[in-house]
Amino acid sequence: MLPAFGVEAAGGSAIRTGSPGVLHGMRSMLLQDEFGQIEEAHSISAGLDYPGIGPEHAYLAHAQRAQYESATDDEVIPALQLLSELEGIVPALETAHAIAWLVREARVSIAPGSTVLVNLSGRGDKDVAQVREILRGAK
Amino acid sequence: MTSLETSLRSLRDGGRKAFVPYFMAGASKDWLRHVEAAAHAGADAIEIGLPFSDPMIDGVVIQEAALRSLERGTSIDSVVSELDDLEVDVPLIAMTYYNVVLHGGLERSASLLRGARVSGVIIPDLPLEEALEWEGACAQHDLATIFLVAPSTPPTRLEMIAQRTKGFCYAQGRMAVTGTPGARSEGGAIATAVRAVTDVPVYVGIGISTPAQASDAASQADGAIVGTAMVELLLRGASVGDVESFVASFRHALDHAPATDFA
Amino acid sequence: MESVGPFMRRPDATGRFGDFGGRFVPEALMPACLELELAFSEAWADEEFVGEFHGVLESFGGRPTPVTELTRLSEHLGLRIFAKREDLAHTGSHKINNVIGQTLLTKRMGKPRVIAETGAGQHGVATATAAARLGLECTIYMGEVDTHRQALNVFRMELLGATVVPVTSGSKTLKDAVNEAMREWVTCVSDTHYCLGSVMGPHPFPWMVREFQSIIGREATEQLHALGVAEPDLVVACVGGGSNAAGIRR
Asked: In Å, how far from its chain's centre is CA B156?
């Protein structure tokens, strides 16, 4: 079986930092405190600002049939810029998490020359204004 | 039979319509005094909300109370320890969401609650199909697992629920979250349908905010539950005296309700 | 039509994937979840429905989306990277796949209205789009914080004829938008379908949404074959709820 990698936002990583619980009709991995109160996720991308994850992913992670990693807000913006400049594709901030993980792990945990299929799940038009604000603030 | 059901049945058999107000545990520092005032003014049982961050079936008023309670640091453990100071002799029924008891451990949560004299638990996001484990934990501690029947529940499900529920059957009066004003309650019709298949007491809740509505619901059911209207009063800073008169007004209406038609 | 591949499996009768999943909803919503499970099972086994789903995806949704070899990024990272271009699907993300499936199912169930939650607005825009195309009424719940972060998407949904309701409870983001959509669903479940946007929520949503999204992986596999790649060494996708990851990795 070939490895599959799901890349969560570091501030909303239910698999890596959560525990099993019930929210929104499902038993899955959730960000929660010691009393089972759901905690807020924090991510640069609104689409990944979610304290849970689909139950099938929770299962695949526990069964060690897929791997779940995370990317930080700080890694995501350069990845978005890199894909834009090298490929002429501005990805959504959500999608840029997958790219950010590739950029970080290439030549590290990913063997050179590996063939990779990345799901370019969405375009970044909706995020252009937000990215501009972030880059301006960084200067 | 659970001790909750024994006492609620004897209430019914004595011809008394039950009034059950709801309080959010820990929503204010004197919440226990409010509970005592309600019991003193004629409440037959008290529903105690254990706050959850994401209350799926609750409207804005109870959401706000839950938020205040959580901000005050309320947890199942803190409530259980506070209940030591509560001086009432009516049954206590906890209402919470599944993650709260699941995270604390089903067996441990059931044991803690029963130790604090809670005798029944309502978990609205735990339908029959998911409840077996929790029912097992509760059965070991004489804790009644109370299920809801909704207006959308078809007859075959209604029958299954009526047979599995313990303590009483909670007839959800309206297709709405708690505290939504509006249309007529379907609770009475549900109560009649439940009564046709089982002898367990039936209380109507969700959509009852006035003594007249309570009295109307109780004409076909064995009792009425009032949550949002009670909690709203407290969020506005009601005194112990205000709670007493609020409960007394429902008590009066229920004591003068038309007799149940068992035909 | 089920994508019972070697990897993603159908959940058991209670909607479980191992210990996870299930259906923890108020009794008021149980009949709707059961009805939906039945409706989807029947529709997904019905060639006519599946044909219509693929037809709308092709004539309206912009499918199939291409696979692009990212040659310069590949060179930069010392890898051979192929991208499945869901950014080129109608409305700019993979969300349209699920939404077309669910809105067609809504019509099939005879319901005239959909509600949905949205975080960044991608699922909201996709739902508003499919609802407009199929003549369904549409209300979108969006955390108030997100309505500010994604103000243009709010306007976009409104242009598409949807009503956008800012959610002010809790953290005012995606989690709270889901709570509010669930609460709303209780009040209108008889004539409204809740078009959940990811592989989450009560059964059958995680399974159904994954099935609708599995078109991504089916296409990608064929397209890679055509490019001479039998099987990539690894597959990568971002995960919030996880629908695009579930879709590409069948």
From this structure: 24
Task: Let me know: does A77 contact A128? Beta carbons within 8 Å.
Answer: no
Band (C4; pLDDT cuts 50, 70, 90): very low
Cα nearest neighbour of B64 on chain C: C169
DSSP secondary structure string for all residues of C15-50: -EETTEE-----GGGHHHHHHHHHHHHHHHT-HHHH
Which pLDDT value is given to residue C1? 38
- In three state form, how does the secondary structure of chain A look? CCCEEEEEEHHHCHHHHCEEEEECCEEEEECECCCCCECCCCCCCHHHCCCECCHHHHHHHHCCCCEEEEECHHHHHHHHHHHHHHHCCCECHHHHHHHHHHHHHECCCECCCCEEEEEECEECHHHHHHHHHHHHHHC
Q: pLDDT at residue C3 above 50?
A: no
* Contact yes or no for B158/B192 (Cβ under 8 A): no
CB–CB of B103 and A24 under 8 A? no
Q: C206 — contact with chain A (CB < 8 Å)?
A: yes
Residue A134, chain C, CB below 8 Å: the answer is no
Interface of B with A (CB under 8 A): 52-54, 56, 70, 75-77, 97-100, 102-104, 125
**Predicted confidence (pLDDT) per residue in C116-140, tens digit:** 999 889 999 999 999 999 999 999 9
Inter-chain CB proximity C73 and A87 less than 8 Å: yes
Q: Do C28 and B98 touch (CB under 8 A)?
A: no
Position B33: which residue type?
A: R
Quote ipTM for the complex.
Answer: 0.95
Q: Is B133 helix (H, G, I), strand (E, B) or coil?
A: helix
Amino acid identity of residue C219, one-letter, is: E
How many Cβ atoms from other residues are within 10 Å of residue B135's Cβ?
Answer: 18
Q: Which of residues 127-186 of C touch A (CB under 8 A)?
A: 143, 145-146, 149-150, 152-153, 170-171, 173-175, 178-179, 182
Find chain C residues with C-beta within 8 A of A24's C-beta.
175, 178-179, 182, 200-202
Q: Which of B52, B77, B125 sits opposite A37 (nearest CB)?
A: B52
What pTM value is reported for the model? 0.95
The residues near B171 (Cβ < 8 Å, ≥ 6 apart) are B148, B149, B187, B190, B191, B194, B202, B203, B204, B205, B221
Q: Which of B5, B36, B44, B58 is the catalytic position?
A: B58
Query: Which of B153, B176, B180 is the closest to C27 by Cβ?
Result: B153
Residue C72 is encoded by which pair of tokens? 């310069």
Q: What is the pLDDT along chain A (139 residues), one digit of tens a residue?
A: 456 889 999 988 999 999 999 999 999 999 999 999 999 888 888 888 899 999 999 999 999 999 999 999 999 999 999 999 999 999 999 999 999 999 999 999 999 999 999 999 999 999 999 999 999 987 6
Q: What is the structure's pLDDT at A43? A: 87
Which tokens hold the place of A51?
A: 């304290």
Q: Which CATH class is domain A70-138?
A: alpha beta
The CA distance from B116 to the nearest CA of chain C, in Å, is 26
CB atoms within 10 A of CB C152: 13
Catalytic residue status for B82: no
- Nearest by CB: A27 against C20, C33, C84: C20
Using the beta-carbon criterion (under 8 Å), do C28 and B175 form an inter-chain contact? yes
Checking phi first, is residue B28 left (phi over 0); if not, alpha (psi -120 to 50) or beta?
A: beta
**Alpha helices (H) along C109-214:** 122-134, 144-149, 151-159, 174-188, 205-213
| B186 in active site | no
Domain parsing of chain A, residue ranges = 5-69, 70-138
